[in-house]
Amino acid sequence: MAEMEIVVLDGEKMLNRREAHDHLAGQLELPEYYGRNLDGLYDLLTEREGPTRIVIRHGNTLLSWLGDYGRALIQTLIDADRVNPGLEVLFDGE
């Protein structure tokens, strides 16, 4: 069995859409072609192979800075978790 990859997403590093997608691309090692949008993120996460745990830290900070887009981003991660059995999304209790 493959070892679980743990990816930490830090809401304090996602203060606007550009920074959010820069952080997502770097932490998740996303290919350049993903398009830096939530549809592309969803597609890549649902197709991701191997066990991956995504831990979201400072989720409240992310929501306070990104508002509706932050909520949509979190929902995209949750939706991908539901579809991909190898993906697990957790929220750090901060």
Brief account:
The protein has helices spanning 17-28, 38-47, 59-83; strands at 5-10, 52-57, 87-91. It has 3 helices and 3 strands; from the N terminus they run βααβαβ. The longest helix has 25 residues, at 59-83.
Protein architecture, described:
This protein is α/β, with parallel strands linked by helices and 94 residues long. It contains three helices and three strands. It has a three-stranded parallel beta sheet, with helices on one face. Helix 3 links the parallel strand 2 and strand 3. The protein is globular, with a radius of gyration of 12 Å. It starts with a strand and ends with a strand.
Low-confidence stretches: none
Radius of gyration: 12 Å
Distance between the termini: 31 Å
Strand content: 15-25%
| SS field, number of helical segments | 3
In the sheet with the most strands, the strands line up as 1-2-3
Compressed to H and E, one letter per element, the order equals EHHEHE
Task: Classify the secondary structure makeup into a structural class.
Answer: alpha/beta
The overall average pLDDT, rounded, is: 94
> What does the main sheet amount to?
3 strands, parallel
Question: What form results from the Cα inertia axes?
Answer: globular
Number-wise, the strands total: 3
Helix content, binned percent? 40-55%
List the helices and strands and how they pair.
Layout (H helix, E strand, L loop, with lengths): L4 E6 L6 H12 L9 H10 L4 E6 L1 H25 L3 E5 L3
Parallel strand pairs: 1-2, 2-3
